[in-house]
Design brief:
Blueprint: H1 2-19, H2 31-49, H3 69-74, H4 76-79, E1 80-89, E2 92-102, E3 109-119, E4 125-136, E5 141-146, E6 149-150, E7 154-163, H5 165-168, E8 172-174
Length: 183
């Protein structure tokens, strides 16, 4: 008799659990679906009441079309802008930094390699270094600290390699114009 009661009890528990409050479902809708419908209709009303968002203005040098990936890669220094800032004195450069700003609105750079050239007073390259920066979101400004460089009169910088899911499909590629020694 005990063997017979155990399967009956299990069956009753399973049936009750599967009903899950059937008395609330008489009209075919649960509280949860009613709330979700109210939230959706409320958010739709809010969005309809907002004024339309104006389209972003095109850059001045643009003819109305946004640049494609190859154009961005070829002119990367216009979009991932690097700018050296330093103090030059008679013994060289000190307190130098290079700032890199991502001016693209829909592109994140997972990695970028920036070449920094230290130039002598006559314009010859004394030293060139490569610095890696990572995770540059749209509008971000990254700073690279440059150690003191004796005998240097100025600095130049430009981006030479980038990795971006949007532009390079996650691959590290050469970008921009590549300068050789003495240029």
């Amino acid at each position: 008799m005990k063997m017979f009661k155990l399967p009956v009890i299990v069956l009753v528990i399973v049936v009750l659990a599967s009903c899950n409050g059937a008395e609330n479902k008489a009209d075919g809708a649960t509280n949860e679906t009613t709330i979700n419908k109210e939230e959706k209709s409320g958010s739709e009303n809010i969005q309809q009441d907002l004024p339309p968002v104006p389209a972003a203005a095109a850059p001045e040098d643009s003819i109305g079309a946004s640049p494609d990936n190859n154009e961005i890669l070829a002119r990367i220094d216009q979009y991932l802008v690097s700018k050296p800032e330093f103090q030059a004195n008679g013994s060289g450069i000190s307190n130098a930094v290079v700032t890199v700003k991502n001016t693209l609105t829909g592109t994140t750079f997972q990695k970028a390699i920036v070449e920094v050239n230290a130039l002598s007073a006559d314009g010859k390259i004394i030293r060139n270094d490569f610095y890696t920066i990572q995770n540059i979101e749209p509008g971000d400004l990254e700073t690279i600290k440059i150690p003191a460089i004796p005998k240097a009169a100025s600095l130049t910088s430009h981006v030479v390699k980038i990795k971006s899911n949007e532009l390079t499909n996650g691959e590290m590629v050469l970008a921009g114009t590549h300068f050789g020694q003495g240029q």
